Amino acid sequence: MEKTSKSSDRSIGSFFFMNNFTAMEINKNQISEYNKNELQRHNERFDFLAQRLTKQNHNLSEIVSRLSEFQVAIPSWALGAGGTRFGRFSFYGEPTNLEQKIEDIGIIHQLTQTAGAVSLHIPWDIPSDYKAIKEKADALSIKFDAVNSNTFQDQINSAESYKYGSLSNTSKAVRDQAIQHNLDVIKIGDKLGSKALTVWLADGSSFPGQNNFQTAFQNTQDSLIDIYKGLPDDWKLLVEYKPYEPNFYSTVIQDWGASLMLANGCGDKAYTLVDLGHHLPNTNIEQIVAILQLKGKLGGFHFNDSKYGDDDLTVGSIKPYALFLIFNELVYGMQNNPQNPDLAWMIDASHNIKDPLEDLIQSLEAIQEAYAKALLVDQNLLKIAQNDNDVVKCQEILQNAYRTDVRPLIERARMNAGGAIQPIDAYRALGVRAQLVKERGKNTVATGL
């Protein structure tokens, strides 16, 4: 009987919400009304956890505050259904332009209070009206994070083709076109308030002997230097890497070492960007993160998850413990490596069967969970155990933090910031997707991959 009653109440609430808002205008009163139904359950869970963590001398106010402040950028290409080379299954009500994409990010941010930035991909999302786009983003408390260039596809009316590479191409005309595209992306980002350019190259070869490795690498270095010269003084250049795909014999920027060399070859404003999916199986990503922070050269981080390769799955859905270990190094670096700049955080995932907004909300939850658990690691105690070569104690310290159910801390951080205690549940109770379909129709398709 209790389940039936609760379901009935939720249906009434959903009907109320759907008839009193447009999908992109969830207001604080509606979230507050939703939270009332969840508050008692949340308080019970939070109080139970708080009692335990307080006895362990954790500062709960500080942890909750840091969780509230942590913001992750949503890429503009992730608001529609993803796909593969075999097919794409559209999810109704997709955004058809940049304005609608920002509105969708606004929905995510209103519910989670963690998605306070957008990362644009150019030329997929060039603003037609910069003033209007900035005003819309400002109204939704969304900033513009790193802008991303695209030289892995031929663009309409381009004079040259990137079929055999862009910044590494043997043709100077092709390289010059790719360089100019990146410089144009910087100008677009500068108008919006972005402070970083992310460069990911598909450049490489599919067959032995196709490329001269040294020439391709040197061409890339020279091209990046030309792009670097066009950076505003307060900008960063983020050099991304990937071991394979779309080329399957070699990739010019195949690993963090190649990225770091290229970044160092450009200057102090150039950094390596780590994407979770851009590693060969069983790569120790946490070690890469730690060394880059030590050297002050970790500039950004792209979140996703994978089982086999660059699968771009929901963050934390496959390897949550690996994500925690990475965050343990990130937290240590943020506390102990002042030589490393503030990081650009972004979700870089794609999906073929999930509601894109629900998938992104799940990813944000997983990121916050790994971050919260890492904040519970007693770094001083861990350092003592490491110095004593107490291997068992080191493992216990990490796993005790990992095994803690930190979701009440995340809920409290969201609630304090004005978000929903349970954002996925609220999203469904509000009937957001149905409202998006009602406003946009079923046959809309988002730009991007």
Q: Would you give an account of this structure?
A:
It is a single chain. The chain is an alpha/beta fold and 449 residues long. Helices cover 50% and strands 9% of the residues. The protein has 16 helices and twelve strands. It has helices spanning 2-18, 28-55, 60-69, 98-112, 130-139, 172-192, 213-229, 256-266, 285-294, 320-336, 356-375, 379-387, 391-402, 407-417, 423-429, 432-440, and strands at residues 73-75, 117-119, 121-122, 143-144, 147-149, 196-199, 204-205, 236-240, 250-251, 270-275, 298-303, 344-347. The strands form three sheets. The chain has a seven-stranded parallel beta sheet with strand order 3-5-6-8-10-11-12. The protein has a three-stranded parallel beta sheet with strand order 1-2-4, with no helix packed on it. It has a two-stranded antiparallel sheet with strand order 7-9. Helix 3 (60-69) crosses helix 14, helix 9 packs parallel to helix 10 (320-336) and helix 10 packs across helix 11. The longest helix is centred in the N-terminal third of the chain and has 28 residues, at 28-55. The radius of gyration is 23 Å and the shape is globular. The model is unreliable at 1-21 (pLDDT under 50).
Spatial extent as radius of gyration = 23 Å
Query: Can you count the helices?
Result: 16
Query: What is the global morphology?
Result: globular
- State the end-to-end distance: 47 Å
Mean pLDDT: 93
- SSE order: HHHEHEEHEEHEEHEEHEHEHEHHHHHH
Decide which structural class fits the backbone.
alpha/beta
Q: What share of the residues lie within helices?
A: 40-55%
The amount of beta strand, in percent, is 5-15%
Q: Low-confidence stretches at least 5 residues in length (pLDDT < 50)?
A: 1-21
